[in-house]
TrEMBL record:
Low complexity: bias regions: 312-322
Regions of compositional bias (Pro residues) in chain numbering: 301-311
Region (Disordered): 301-322
Primary localization: membrane
Domain of life from the UniProt record: Bacteria
Protein name as it appears in the record: ABC transporter
Membrane topology classification: Multi-pass membrane protein
Cellular component per GO, a single term: plasma membrane
Keywords carried by this UniProt record: ATP-binding, Membrane, Nucleotide-binding, Transmembrane, Transmembrane helix
């Protein structure tokens, strides 16, 4: 209310002061209008300063948080002299222990996992057991505290980050969809993909309907807001499939799908002629070509205080389903 009252008082004062001269004929009437508009313009120019001053403290605090984040060391860095990319695509975790930054408990302890070239492996287990952490290690988004992670026999820490990421595309459960066309988002995986390639992969992942609604060259909205969460997740899977990489890493690709759609997607992934590692809470729909690896959370010692998150885990290989 004060913001509106002050300009009104200013206009009133201008009209009173200049209006008397206009009434006596000492001043041109045009000056009366100019005075009123000038007062309004002046208040319009400075009207937002009060709100800006009120927000300044929050802005400074946000800037401090951004600055502190920028000063943190990166989780992973390129080696000084990276090795050439290996020819093979076998994956291995060797006695891997991992603690997330700032966490009080270990995420993984002494995990050993071998994924042969061309093998299809499903990681399962309860929430917090470390399934996504294993994917992060394979992608080298994180480095282990102890042990090593290898691709084609080479320690990931000895390879250039760009080479690791190019060899192992990751389909996140909630993938990043950019504010561009559907085709532009898909071509992030392979920029030379033809329109026929894009249409085929959309049909493969059950998104043929988008060809008639959004269209390949249709705008998907900021952060893919024109797509549902399930459609955005499938776009992430489509990008991974479109990539020529020999390894696929997928985090909960069947989440929120009905049984028929989940089974069709699992069959599609099983038919890939490359190494596939996926995370899921449910093994329903997996056939005998998948090897199931369960991440088990051991019971805490007697008398131990309750943990804020599940404790150390070990990888245990379950019998293949089907």
């Amino acid at each position: 209310m004060l913001r509106e009252a002050v300009p009104a008082l200013g206009v009133g004062a201008a009209l009173w002061l200049v209006g008397w001269d206009v009434a006596t004929g000492a001043t041109d009437p045009v000056l009366l209008a100019a005075s009123a508009l000038g007062v309004l313009g002046a208040f319009e120019a400075v009207g937002g300063l009060g709100a800006a001053w009120s927000a300044a403290g929050g802005i400074r605090a946000a800037a401090d948080r951004v600055r502190a984040l920028g000063e943190q060391p990166p989780a992973v860095t390129d080696p000084a002299a990276p090795l050439p990319p290996p020819s093979g695509s076998a994956l291995r975790l060797e006695s891997v222990t991992l603690t997330h930054r700032g966490a009080r408990r270990l995420a993984l302890t002494d995990v050993d996992l071998a994924v042969a070239e061309g093998e299809r492996v499903c990681l399962t287990g309860p929430s917090g057991a470390g399934k996504s952490s294993v994917l992060a290690l394979l992608l080298r988004a994180l480095d282990p505290d102890r042990g090593r992670v290898t691709l084609g026999g080479a320690d990931l820490r000895a390879l250039a980050l760009a080479d690791v990421r190019a060899r192992s595309p990751w389909a996140a459960q909630s993938p990043q969809v950019l504010g561009r066309t559907l085709a532009g988002n898909l071509r992030l995986a392979r920029d030379d993909a033809s329109e026929a390639d894009l249409q085929a992969v959309l049909r493969d992942v059950g998104l043929a309907g988008l060809l008639g609604t959004v269209g390949l060259h249709g705008w998907v909205g900021e952060s893919g807001e024109r797509l549902s969460a399930v459609e955005r997740a499938r776009v992430g899977v489509a990008r991974a499939l479109l990539s020529p990489a020999r390894v696929l890493l997928l985090d909960e690709p069947t989440a929120h799908l009905d049984a028929a759609a989940a089974g069709a997607l699992l069959d599609l992934l099983a038919a890939q002629d490359r190494t596939v590692v996926l995370v899921t809470h449910s093994t329903a729909g997996l056939d005998g070509c998948w090897r199931v690896v369960a991440l088990l959370v051991p019971a805490p010692p007697a008398g131990a205080p309750p943990a804020p998150r599940p404790g150390p885990v070990r990888a245990a290989v379950a019998a293949p389903t089907g």
